[in-house]
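Batch queue: ligand-bound targets. Current item pairs a single chain with fe (ii) ion. No template structures supplied; prediction is de novo from sequence plus SMILES. Inputs echoed for audit trail.
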Amino acid sequence: MRKDILKNLQQEIYDRCQKETNKFGMGCYYHIVAVVKNAEILAEEYGADKEIVMIAAWLHDIASITEYSLYELHHIHGAEMAYSILKEYGYEDKKILLVQKCIKNHRGSISLEKNSIEELCVADADAISHFDSLPSLLYLAYVQRGMGIEDGKEFVKNKLIRSFQKLSARSKKHYQNKFEKTMEVLG
Ligand SMILES: [Fe+2]
Ligand SMILES: [Fe+2]
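Prediction returned. Tokens below.
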């Protein structure tokens, strides 16, 4: 495991999130941290290559946090940016390619016939990460969008339901309990 790369990436992402050019604010950093955490759990669970999955998780939204105009196609731009960053760390081309695939496909629906288990881990970790950032979602609803109690509750619940539906069948099973508990808390 290239611990040095993971450590450097964490710092790199933290620094980019703090810059004024990051229009998504620091919430984005906590989102990425949650994705890395869940990606590691899923990689362990599914026997995926943990190093590839964790590096891709750190980098999956790098284009959006670096330049707002790249948001629309951030999966494509992110894969390109990942190449130059990882190349600088002396990471092998063959592995960079696997990381790039995870970044390119983190937004779409993943099927195991077409995609690798590593791609599935990153896409599912991204979808489930909302469940680890409830305070940010509530803040978005009640403060940033100024919603009332009921509207805000429905907004957050719908967002969570949509995220859960994006998960692969096996990850739905894995996170079923977390999903139910979170829904119960929101009432
Ligand atoms: Fe993304
Ligand atoms: Fe993301």
